[in-house]
Amino acid sequence: MTDGAPKSAYELAMEKLKAQDDEAGADAVELTAEQVEAIGVARRDYEAKVAECRILRDSKMVATFDPAAVEELQANYRRDLSHFETDRDKKIERIRSGE
Question: Distance between CA atoms of 48 and 52, rounded to whole angstroms?
Answer without folding.
Answer: 6
